[in-house]
Design goal:
alpha+beta; 2 domains; 8 strands; about 40% helix
Length: about 160
């Protein structure tokens, strides 16, 4: 009887570190760090497309080093191409919001080609990409944070040569 009583404790003692390791891996794999890693060219791409109304249309790309390029196309304050630098803290803030929203679980294309007058919002953050044109996931918190950073960033107009 004492052997069987000790066997589960031994099994639990063996399983507990494995369970803790699995939890830590799960948390770290989907934390902000998972969204801060990216390729050499682009860390973030954020685009809003035009519609038949007054939809804001622009493209934002941010490289892993924080260098950002914003191109305003229509219905935005800045029309044309602008550059700026985002801090690592700003990038971490965006990555934290994406991690909290579990962007990795919402990646995909949300569209209905039968509906013609809808703007699309495209975001690529690290390896995760969402194209939201119709019935996409609720990423309004991430979009609001990006829109706010775009607004607060001191942009420099690209010089024309």
């Amino acid at each position: 009887m004492k052997l069987s009583a000790k066997a589960p404790q031994h099994t639990l003692a063996f399983k507990l570190p494995c369970i803790c390791a699995a939890i830590l891996c799960s948390v770290s794999c989907h934390g902000p760090r998972a969204y801060l890693s990216g390729g050499d060219a682009e860390w973030l791409s954020y685009q809003r497309t035009m519609c038949f109304g007054p939809c804001p249309a622009f493209t934002l790309t941010v490289a892993p080093d924080g260098s950002a390029i914003y191109t305003g196309k229509a219905n935005v304050e800045r029309i044309g191409t602008y550059t700026a630098d985002w801090s690592q803290e700003q990038m971490h803030e965006i990555a934290s919001i994406a991690a909290a929203m579990r962007l990795d679980r919402k990646a995909g294309v949300y569209d209905n080609p039968l509906i013609t007058d809808l703007p699309a919002t495209r975001i690529t953050l690290g390896p995760h990409e969402v194209m939201d044109r119709f019935n996409g996931p609720d990423l309004s918190g991430l979009y609001a944070a990006l829109d706010s950073l775009i607004e607060l960033t001191p942009w420099t107009p690209e010089s024309k040569q």
